[in-house]
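retry 2 of 3: previous attempt timed out while embedding N-carbamoyl-L-aspartate. Reduced batch size to 1 and resubmitted. Inputs unchanged:
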Amino acid sequence: MVRHLTTTADLTDGEIEAIFEEANGYLNGETNQKLRSRLVINIFFENSTRTRSSFEVASRRLGAEVVSLDVASSSESKGETMHDTAANLDAMGASAIVVRHKNAGAPKILSKYVKASVINGGDGAHAHPTQALLDLFTLRQALGDVRGKKIAIVGDIRNSRVANSNIKLLTRFGMEVILVAPPHFLPKRSNVRATWNIREVVDELSAIMSLRTQTERHERPIYASLSDYAVNFKITKELLGDRQIYVMHPGPVHRNIDLDDSVLSDPRSLVLRQVHNGVATRMAILSKFVLEY
Ligand code: NCD
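retry 2 succeeded.
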């Protein structure tokens, strides 16, 4: 049976552990050509910098051929339905299709029409499972045992698929998530602890995950300027003090809005480590979904 990765709930704890073990091997220099002569198609209906290139690098390192189609040249803009796009990708013989779309649920729809495994590269504000997996992997690498440790997710949580997937995955693996945002950026319904004032919780934290303000998903401008938002929600060195708090961000970072320059260059920043680990994690994910299903 073909299986697809639409949310982290598609994987059992054991499968996630196995993915992490394989990813660790890649970080330690293991190489293989498991996906030799397989075709991975990246179809990105929405912009991406690092996710798309991360999947490309991961696929190539395993010997796969990669074709990346982006929004400007995709035929959806010419009126083709998702169903027909899918049928065409299938006809090219893809083993895996990595899809990003502005609409929540698009990868699920695509998966109904293809023989390949569909991997969600981010759908609307719904889910970004591979990002959450690489984030958990990175947290474990930094913190060791993550159970009982606390992480603040800061910023535009309501519109963030990264936050959505991380809230589910990190709590499932025993972390306590605290949401830090102004009320209009908090999820409408949520039983996760929340505050607008990070200073209230900073002493409890082992990590902070800062998010970009998703201006493209706002129906109308919420802040007069992003610098108004930054007054309360930018992560600064002054806020961290000498606490051992790791700082993460999925990128792209709004410098000096989400994170201060000095925080980005601080040894407590895991931002580039996330990108580095992302390739190894996606290699393990791709090999699982291409070879096992
Ligand atoms: C994010 C995304 O596109 O969901 N970036 C990423 O995939 N690393 C976050 C964002 O766009 O702010």
